Every structure is written in C-alpha cells, then in structure tokens.
C-alpha cells in the first residue's frame, strides 16, 4: 500500500485529533433514555453571563495571559492548508517513522493474536488494555524526547474516586468520564497524561475506520465508533460506553464536538454525559491551557515544545457526581468547572450558551 506525504500528514492529524472525532450521542437518541424526572433541556439551560463580565473577563480569579497571545514559531513551509516549521518537521518525521514501523505493526500483531483459536489473549486482556499501554509507551518516548509533556495540576482531586474498604484501606480509582475543552490536536496526548497505563476508551467518528493505519489501530484498541446518522450505531455506541464504565474502563470525551476556531471554549453538545449518568459514574472536568500554542489550528505538527512559554497546562478538577442531577444541571456544572480553570484567552466569550442541541 502506498501513501503520499499528504496522506501521511492527514493520518497524523487524525491520530492526534481523535478529540475532534469524539462524538456525543445525539439528543434525539438520548431523549429516549432521559428519566421522567429530568427537566426539558431547553427550559433549564442557562448562559454563562453571570460569570463573564462585560469586558469578557471570567470570574474573580482570571488568569492574565497577554504574553501568550504572541508566540513566534520561526520560518516554515506550507503544504496545502497546513504549515510546518523546523521543529514540526523533525517531530513529524520521528513520529511517522516510529508510528509506521512500531506502533502500527504492534497493533496488527495484537489484532492477529486476538483472532487465534481459543482467544487466549482475549481472556488475558478482555478490555484491550495492552494496546493502550503500547500507545502510552510510544508516547513516553516521543513526548519526553521532544519536551512535549504538559504540566498536570490537580491530580490530588482524583483521590475522591479512590475506593476505600471498611478497614480504611485504599484501592484503585473508580472509573469516570473525563471531559475537557478542545482547541488543538495535542489535547488527546495531554489528557492521556492523566491516565498513564490506566485503561480508557475514546468515542470516535465511524469515518475514521476508512483512514489507513489509524482506523485499524483505533479498532484494535477497543475504542468506540459512532455514526451519528445511524440510529443502530448510536445505540451500539451508547451501550458500549455504558459497559466500559461498568467494566472499570474510563471514558474520554470533548463535548464541544470539534476544535475551537478561536481557542475559546464553546458550547457543549447535549447528551455528552448520559453514559456516565446511567451508570452513576462521576464526571472529571479537565481544563487544557495553551495546547493551541503548542500546535496551532493551521499547523500539521506541533510547532514548539510544550515546556516553552506559554507552557501547556492540564488542570484536573474535582469529580462531579452525576446522581440526582438533570442533564442541564450537570452540563452547566461541568462547563463552569472547566471554564474556571482556563486562562483568559480561552474562557468562553460573553453570551456563549452552556449547551446546544445536536
């Protein structure tokens, strides 16, 4: 199979942009599962105007980031609609090489072993954690070598999810749905820093199955595919997501549904958290700052290390319980929690609705 340079760039873009492919279950499907006690979405949803002042500042603890708005990446070239500078070219060549000759073959081998008679590997790894670990090991090498690690704050908040037995002995973390803002292709690897070798699954667009290398790898990893135009696919994705949480596997979603065009957080899609509500799993709000400065919207690869100013920061918020909350109440709580942790340049614009119907 032959690939042009442009197709490799597209594959890389989709690989890092799994976040953009993250889908929420359409409201038309969710409405069939909403409890009778929930208030109609449209009647209870509010704007964020109470927290955003007339000048666009957010709350009392707004983070000043004027310097972050002017980042220079040096000379580069443009291929199609995307730019590549020197740092991005080196990073891209390294990533594509190891992706094609290490990550992808490892995924293929894993898939073949899963199809062997008796499915011994399936019994040893029923929730497909091995592909996640392989991906993380590859990420450790790439992110460390190029200084791409974001600063993670608030890990202590996850202790609220830790199981504790009758004797006070602490166990593992309970599964949860991790929800973040989305403005860059780097959002996925940054969020994955939180998990390390823990298992998690992503809800991806069904179109990604057609992408060479990437589609196969995501499928082998056990991630959830969703075709929002197909009700059968919607139902299968919903059931798979619920089952993942029941099996102790974390879910990740970016409820804006696509990358922000201006770095500011936008409205969330209705139905983003229904899987967690059905199971009673908590929502963990995650605020990602300056990922768009590491890899801007119009760059094919990262344009600078994450450790260079402005440094990328991942803030893990306090888990938000879903029990007893209506769809709109939960949506607003999560939206506010994520917005509170963002720098001034990424906070929602005044008048931005908390949620919109899909």
What features would you describe in this structure?
The protein has 13 helices and 13 strands. It has a 7-stranded mixed β-sheet with strand order 3-12-11-6-9-7-8, sandwiched between helices. It has 358 residues and is α/β, with parallel strands linked by helices. The chain is globular and about 55 Å long. The chain has helices spanning 5-16, 18-21, 27-30, 41-44, 86-114, 120-124, 129-145, 187-195, 214-220, 231-246, 274-279, 291-294, 327-340, and strands at 76-79, 82-85, 151-153, 162-164, 170-173, 177-180, 200-205, 224-226, 250-253, 268-269, 283-289, 313-316, 355-356. Strand 7 (200-205), helix 9 and strand 8 form a beta-alpha-beta unit. Residues 1-23 and 34-63 have low confidence and may be disordered. Helix 5 packs antiparallel against helix 7 (129-145).
Distance between the termini: 38 Å
**What's the order of the H and E elements?**
HHHHEEHHHEEEEHEHEHEEHEHEHE
Strand order of the largest sheet: 3-12-11-6-9-7-8
Broad shape: globular
Strand content bin: 5-15%
Beta strands, count: 13
- Summing up helix and strand content along with how strands pair, one would put the structural category as alpha/beta
What is the count of DSSP helices, taking H or I runs of 4+ residues?
Answer: 13
Mean pLDDT: 83
Round the Cα radius of gyration to an integer and report it.
20 Å
Q: Which residue ranges are poorly predicted, with pLDDT under 50 across at least 5 consecutive positions?
A: 1-23, 34-63
Roughly how much helix do the residues carry, as a percent range? 25-40%
What summary fits the major beta sheet? 7 strands, mixed
């Amino acid at each position: 199979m032959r690939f042009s340079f442009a197709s490799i760039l597209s594959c890389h873009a989709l690989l890092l942009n799994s976040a953009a492919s993250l889908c929420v279950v359409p409201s038309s499907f969710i409405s069939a599962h909403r409890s009778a006690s929930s208030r109609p979405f449209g009647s209870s949803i509010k704007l964020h105007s109470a927290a955003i002042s007339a000048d666009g500042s957010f709350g009392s603890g707004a983070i000043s980031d004027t310097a972050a708005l002017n980042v220079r990446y040096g000379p580069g070239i443009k291929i199609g609609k995307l730019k590549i500078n020197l740092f991005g070219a080196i990073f891209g060549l390294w990533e594509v090489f190891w992706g094609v000759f290490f990550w992808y073959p490892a995924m293929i081998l894993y898939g073949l072993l899963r199809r062997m008679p008796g499915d011994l590997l399936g019994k040893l790894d029923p929730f497909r954690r091995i592909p996640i670990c392989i991906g993380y090991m590859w990420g450790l090498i790439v992110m460390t070598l190029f200084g791409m690690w974001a600063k993670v704050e608030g890990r202590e908040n996850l202790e609220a999810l830790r199981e504790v037995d009758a004797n006070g002995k602490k166990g593992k973390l309970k599964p949860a749905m991790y929800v973040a803002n989305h403005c860059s292709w780097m959002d996925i690897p940054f969020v994955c820093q939180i998990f390390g070798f823990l298992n998690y699954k992503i809800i991806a667009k069904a179109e990604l199955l057609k992408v060479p290398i990437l589609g196969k790898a995501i499928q082998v990893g056990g991630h959830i595919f969703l075709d929002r135009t197909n009700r059968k696919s919607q139902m299968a994705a919903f059931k798979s997501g619920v089952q993942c949480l029941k099996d102790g596997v974390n879910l990740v979603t970016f409820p804006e549904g696509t990358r922000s065009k201006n770095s500011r957080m936008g409205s969330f899609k209705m139905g983003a958290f229904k899987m967690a509500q059905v199971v009673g799993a908590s929502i963990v709000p995650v605020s990602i700052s300056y990922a768009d400065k590491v890899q801007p919207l119009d760059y094919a690869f990262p344009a600078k290390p994450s450790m260079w100013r402005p440094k990328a920061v991942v803030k893990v918020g306090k888990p938000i319980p879903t029990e007893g909350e209506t769809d709109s109440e939960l949506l607003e709580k999560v939206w506010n929690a994520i917005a509170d942790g963002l720098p001034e340049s990424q906070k929602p614009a005044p008048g931005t609705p908390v949620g919109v119907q899909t």
